[in-house]
Specification:
Strand content: 15-25%
Number of helices: 17
Strand order of the largest sheet: 7-6-17-18-19-16-20
Mean pLDDT: 93
CATH topology of the largest domain: Polyamine Oxidase, Chain A, domain 2
Number of strands: 21
CATH architecture of the largest domain: Alpha-Beta Complex
Shape: globular
Structural class: alpha+beta
Number of domains: 3
């Protein structure tokens, strides 16, 4: 196993289940496991430095927590203020109720919202009358999120709502982001119904399963709950708990930190040879799982399959910075009546988003504290990642002073840089991944896994690792 992030740990755990008498090792280049899943635990706070929750609608992380005995540690998001805010002209306004990334579930709420101008609202509400391009019927069709959103809901709705919401998730440039790879459901809605709004209406007309609520009630809940965050959960002692539980479940001596693999090759006996960065160590293995970022996987595959390596190297990554600031609640003038705020690029601010951690998960800090996480960098502002810590912290403090009225200095500050941690699913990503998987399938007892292929969230990473382990176990048997 090469790579000790959540994907590699999930793969190792699954291999242990399938091959309990097998011998396997996990090699991680850094001095810790978990990649960007890091939790700082202080005497009265849990401060997440990476992802702070995961989606239970994708079942794989939830299932793993249950297997590891963590089910009783899961906690949902706060029932209050389950909404996002968006910056417009320096003020925080609620994202319209029922507006899910770009699909409108509540047209009246959109009309009442101050986020868009009258012209912008009229254009968005005209979405059902926008013709579907003939090319969209092609099963292999793809286009950028920007192109699709402007075409369907208009430029203003894209710039004021879609772009910042997408950037807050993927730290991506929506002009390049693949719709087919990130939000295929929107592509399918247009393909099958000709309109995002007609797709909503069609779902509401579907009869509910026997013994369930009426179609009207289901539709109402879809409208209000889909844009909220009730499907996200975290762990009582932080996301790091999942990393620790996986590591504890693996056999003693199976995890090797500070062990960078810098080359993979086929040995004459048909096994795989792993060469380590110290240039003095090499081992052989019957099979391997490479659970690293795609650029590193490309480097490892360079002497095995040049085309595979080139395809892996073509997947670009973005870097980001997370500045976590702890304030006394009285230092902040804003009511913090949302889970966080996203910042449109047209606002020309140096931050992507701010997450109000203690609104989302009140138990993660004392009641008289407010923990705010500020995100910077990403595909649109990559140069920020290389700024000095003091400058980045100053930027975060200044932005919070302007946006939420944060006064005086925070009582505690932490900064985390995540370099090349977020893969960018550019247009054509699905075709590229298909080519990668076809090439990899020709190499015996080798599997690729990670967030570079089929999803960047914690559940998708876990699913990728476990699927790779299942395939490898079958090959080894």
């Amino acid at each position: 196993m090469i790579g000790g992030g959540i994907t590699g740990l999930a793969a190792a755990h699954r291999l242990l289940q399938l091959l309990p008498h097998g011998e396997f090792y996990l090699y991680e280049a850094r001095d810790r496991l978990g990649g960007p899943l890091q939790t700082i635990r202080t005497h009265n706070s849990l401060l997440e430095q990476g992802a702070d929750s995961f989606l239970i609608a994708k079942p794989w992380a939830l299932e793993l927590c249950r297997e590891l005995g963590l089910a009783d540690q899961l906690i949902p998001t706060n029932e209050h203020h389950r909404r996002a805010l968006v910056v417009r002209n320096g003020k925080l306004l609620p994202v319209p109720e029922g507006f899910v990334l770009m699909q409108p579930y509540d047209r009246s709420a959109i009309w009442r919202s101050p986020v868009l101008s009258v012209r912008g609202k009229l254009r968005l509400l005209a979405e059902p009358f926008i013709r579907r391009p003939a090319a969209a019927l092609d099963p292999g069709y793809d286009e950028s999120v920007e192109s699709f959103a402007i075409r369907r809901v208009g430029r203003e709705a894209y710039e004021r709502l879609v772009q910042p919401l997408i950037a807050g998730i993927f730290v991506a440039d929506a002009t390049k982001l693949s719709l087919a790879a990130t939000y295929p459901e929107f592509l399918e809605a247009e393909r099958n119904y000709g309109s995002l709004w007609r797709a909503v209406l069609a779902k509401r007309r579907e009869p509910p399963p026997k013994g369930h609520e009426s179609g009207q009630e289901v539709g109402r809940k879809q409208k209000t709950a889909a844009a909220r965050y009730g499907q996200f959960v975290t762990l009582r002692r932080g996301i790091r708990s999942l990393v620790e539980a996986l590591a504890d479940a693996l056999p003693d001596g199976s995890i090797h930190l500070n062990s960078a693999v810098n080359n993979v090759a086929r040995a004459e006996n048909g096994q795989w040879r792993l060469d380590f960065a110290d240039s003095q160590t090499a081992i052989q293995a019957d099979g391997i799982i490479i659970a690293t970022p795609a650029p590193l996987a490309a480097k490892l595959m360079g002497n095995v399959d040049r085309q595979l390596a080139d395809d892996l190297a073509a997947i670009e990554y973005a870097s980001s910075v997370v500045v976590t600031l702890v304030y006394k609640r009285g230092q902040i003038a804003h009511p913090l009546d949302g889970f966080g705020a996203v910042v449109p690029a047209i606002e020309n601010r140096p931050i992507v988003a701010a997450s109000f951690s203690t609104v989302k998960f009140p138990s993660h800090a004392a009641a008289d504290h407010a923990v705010i996480r500020v995100f910077m960098g990403g595909a649109l502002n990559p140069q920020l990642v290389d700024r000095e810590d003091t400058e980045l912290i100053s930027i975060a403090e200044q932005q919070l002073a302007e946006l939420i009225g944060a006064q005086e200095r925070p009582t505690e500050v932490h900064l985390a840089r995540w370099r090349h941690s977020m893969p960018q699913y550019h247009v054509g990503h699905l075709n590229r991944v298909e080519a990668i998987e076809k090439r990899a399938a020709t190499l015996p007892r080798l599997q690729l896994a990670g967030n570079a292929y089929h999803g960047v969230g914690i559940p998708q990473c876990i699913h990728s690792g476990r699927t790779a382990a299942e395939k490898l176990a079958k090959q080894l048997k």
